[in-house]
Amino acid sequence: MKIIVCVKQVPDTAGGVKFKPDGTLDRGAMLAIMNPDDKAGLEAALRIKDETGAEVIVMTMGLPKADAVLREALAMGADKGVLITDRPLGGADTWATSSTLAAAIRKIPDYDLIITGRQAIDGDTAQVGPQIAEHLGLPVISYAEAIKVNESEHTVTVKRQFDDRYHVLTAKMPCLVTALSELNKPRYMTPKGIWDAVDAELTVWGRKDLTTLKDEDMGLAGSPTKIAKASDKVRKGAGTIYKDLDADEGAKTICDALVEKHYI
Prior knowledge:
nine-stranded mixed beta sheet; two-stranded antiparallel ribbon
């Protein structure tokens, strides 16, 4: 059994967010971590590996420094890492990103399951996973709270979050599943895993390797989504300050304001 896990290196917002003049994130200038939903998806794949002996291949698209999340995944127990990086691929929106990842996945034969995070904390679109499935013509189950594989029937059963309840869905593999960060608690890297991952050989693919990817579907030029404005901080208004009110007057002022805004 072969599982492909798509992970993303995202900005660590605790270290600050920086933008380029064109409105895209300046990823090279920011501290980075593995996206939390993706890490839960990786842990799900590793648990399936523990049960079935599956091969886990981790894939990411990004700057060359994105190899750090692949090495983290290898140190956790993944078997192989694939880095997709090339200047023409930069500035991609969800469409261009999913098109590129789908082209890379097509180069990996005989996969059974693709796991992605539900969404990335730097975009919050929840589009890339389902778009990959659409490009590849695969069924997709999103918002996974639990994942169970049946090897004999070649199916995957997913407990899927849905509003105030959940669905239990079963699909034939190959299939794509998007994972919630609440799916599990990811394991720590092991000392031996860290040691081995430092010098592990990664597969690196650029534009020339993705033969099924069309020029019009990649990079900034192939991204139909355009950013009109970006800002690292949203300035709040000064608000209204009331002075010299006693407790009763203050309470009445607040209630009157809430009534005026139709909050109560």
